[in-house]
């Protein structure tokens, strides 16, 4: 799958590790992943030692689902991030830039009042294989 990264100077530049838009050719398998939070798969208990640990566990859970779908993180074309505290947006950007390969997918970030199981972060994805 080839991702075409779209950019225009007529809209604000990306503020972090994401692209304004991503286009993919028709014909691939599109996979819509449900949101993942920082639950430890073996115990079902939230990883909440630190915000960073919770975010990394959520991304690890998302990666496991991507792999189970037969894909890789390079095939993610859209991410949606949910945070209960938008002041932690920069921390998520840093972790995402480390884990997600370039060219970065399109992304939305949403501030929410609360998330399941007391999570403070959730990530969902769309990938094309």
TrEMBL record:
Q: Please name the Gene3D superfamilies in this protein's record.
A: RutC-like
The UniProt entry, under Pfam families, shows: Ribonuc_L-PSP (PF01042)
Name any one GO molecular function. deaminase activity
The UniProt entry, under InterPro entries, shows: RidA (IPR006056), RutC-like_sf (IPR035959), YjgF/YER057c/UK114 (IPR006175)
Q: Which domain of life is it from?
A: Bacteria
One GO cellular-component annotation of the UniProt record comes to: cytosol
Which NCBIfam families does the annotation name? Answer: Rid family detoxifying hydrolase
Query: What is stated as this protein's family in its record?
Result: Belongs to the RutC family.
Annotated PANTHER family: 2-IMINOBUTANOATE/2-IMINOPROPANOATE DEAMINASE RIDA, 2-IMINOBUTANOATE_2-IMINOPROPANOATE DEAMINASE
What is the protein name for this chain?
A: Reactive intermediate/imine deaminase
UniProt organism field: Pigmentiphaga litoralis
């Amino acid at each position: 799958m080839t991702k075409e990264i779209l950019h225009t100077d007529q809209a604000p530049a990306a503020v972090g590790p994401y692209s304004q838009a991503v286009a993919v050719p028709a014909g691939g398998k599109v996979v819509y992943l449900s949101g993942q939070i920082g639950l430890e798969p073996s115990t079902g208990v939230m990883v909440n030692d630190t915000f960073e640990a919770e975010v990394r566990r959520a991304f690890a859970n998302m990666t496991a689902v991507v792999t189970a779908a037969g894909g890789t993180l390079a095939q993610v074309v859209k991410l949606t991030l949910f945070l209960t505290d938008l002041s932690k947006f920069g921390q998520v950007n840093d972790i995402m830039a480390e884990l997600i390969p370039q060219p970065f997918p399109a992304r939305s970030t949403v501030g929410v009042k609360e998330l399941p199981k007391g999570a403070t972060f959730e990530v969902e994805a769309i990938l094309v294989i």
